[in-house]
Known about the structure:
This protein is of the alpha/beta class. It has ten helices and 13 strands. Strands 5-4-1-8-9-10-11-12-13 form a nine-stranded mixed beta sheet, with helices on both faces. It has a four-stranded mixed beta sheet with strand order 3-2-6-7. α2 links the parallel β4 and β5.
Amino acid sequence: MSENNIIVVGIFVVDLAFVASKLPLPGETIIGDNYIIGPGGKGSNQSVAISRSGGKASLIARIGDDQFGEVGRNLYQKENVYTEGLIIAKGEKTGSAAISIDKNGMNSIIVVPGAASGLKKSMIDEKLHLFRKSSIMVTGFEVPLDIALYCLKKAKSEGLMTILNPAPYFDIDNTNFKLVDYLTPNEHEASSLTNIEIQNIDDARVAGRRICELGVGTSIITMGEKGVLCTTNSDDHDGLYIPSYKLKEKVIDTVGAGDAFNGAFATAISEDMGLEDALNFANKAASLSVRKSGAALSAPFREEINQVWFKDL
């Protein structure tokens, strides 16, 4: 591993995705069109996205010693994700996620973390040598909240740049946001954090400034087909707006798009790309990912990202 290695603290689960014409209502049973079983978990997906986009990813995650856990180990070997940070919990179940996907690619998800819920601070301490070999740490809220915050503190104490993807959203003490260099919520998470209903870019501009007021270095709000709004400080009234890429292929599945964005963005930052170039690079990756089914395996490779040009807008 090199100094521009990216450490990801997250979870691995096996996704059970069910495709139907619409998402079922509470109490409703519908007939689906297809189902897909594949690797998932936001941190795991981001690690694969980092590797595929050209970065060097090392994943800290706790998985079971079951068949689902074997799926993860095989994935990382194939995708060139460093596994020194993996913790194998004997006799425990690897997590799983139930995903419903409608005809427009929109989704709803229930995640059961399984063995990942047992990640402890002492386990992070045993992996601190991986932090010291890295320049960036990425985490989110699928791991226990106290672990995510502990990792942010450890990363900053070791001089790493931090990326926090606050998904799924939970309230935390606002003082913790000072530990975050880049906060990457989607519009729903940003709305929960700021109490601003984000329906358009102007709403995102207000929310972005409010996020920066919390002490975050840079706010990056992803809004799907509406694009991305980046705010660099509380006085940044315009922000840097990156529209979504309108590619010829239709949207198949939006699962994993945010992870593809975060992984590619981390790669770009690790390579010292300028902020606008890094956002464009990540936005291309996310736009490509929704043209494929699955979570981790929908992340595009570097050569695919590089083939998307502004003419495709």
